[in-house]
Amino acid sequence: MTDLTDLGIAAIRDGVRAGDFSAREVATAFNARVAGAKTLNAFLVETPEHALAAADEADRARAAGEAPKPLAGVPIGMKDLFCTNGVATTAASEILAGFVPPYESTVSQNLWDAGAGMLGKLNMDQFAMGSSNETSAFGNVISPWRRKDGGNAPLAPGGSSGGSSAAVAARLCPGATGTDTGGSIRQPAAFTGISGIKPTYGRCSRWGTIAFASSLDQAGPMARDVRDCAIMLEAMAGFDAKDATSLQLDVPRWEARLSSDLKGKRVGIPKEYRVDGMPAEIETLWQQGVDWLRDAGAEIVEVSLPHTRYALPAYYIIAPAEASSNLARYDGVRYGLRDLPEGAGLQDMYAATRADGFGAEVKRRIMIGTYVLSAGFYDAYYTQAQKVRTLIARDFEQAWERCDVLLTPTAPSAAFALGEKSADPIAMYLNDVFTVPSSLAGLPAMSVPGGLDGAGLPLGLQIIGKPLDEQGVLNAGLAIEERAGFAARPEGWW
Amino acid sequence: MSDYRIQGDTGEWEVVIGLEVHAQVTSNAKLFSGSATAFGAEPNTQVSLVDAAMPGMLPVPNRECIRQAVRTGMAIDAQINRWSRFDRKNYFYADLPQGYQISQLYHPLVGEGHLDVSPDDKNPEAVKRIGIERIHVEQDAGKLMHDQHPTRSYVDLNRSGVALMEIVSRPDMRSPAEAGAYLTKLRSILRYVGSCDGNMDQGSMRADVNVSVRKPGEPLGTRTETKNVNSVRFVMQAIEHEAKRQVALLEEGGTIVQETRLFNPDTGQTRSMRSKEDAHDYRYFPDPDLLPLELDEAFVAECRASLPELPDAKRQRYEAAGVSAYQAGVLTAEVESARWFDALLAAGAPGAQAANWVSSELFGALNRLGKGIEESPVSPSAAAELLALVADGTLSGSLAKQVFEVMLETGEAPAAIVEARGLKQTSDTGAIDVVIADVIAKNPNQLAQYRGGKEALFGFFVGQTMKAMGGKANPGVVNERLKAMLAG
Question: Which NCBIfam families match (chain B) (predicted)?
Answer without folding.
Answer: gatB, PRK05477.1-2, PRK05477.1-4, PRK05477.1-5
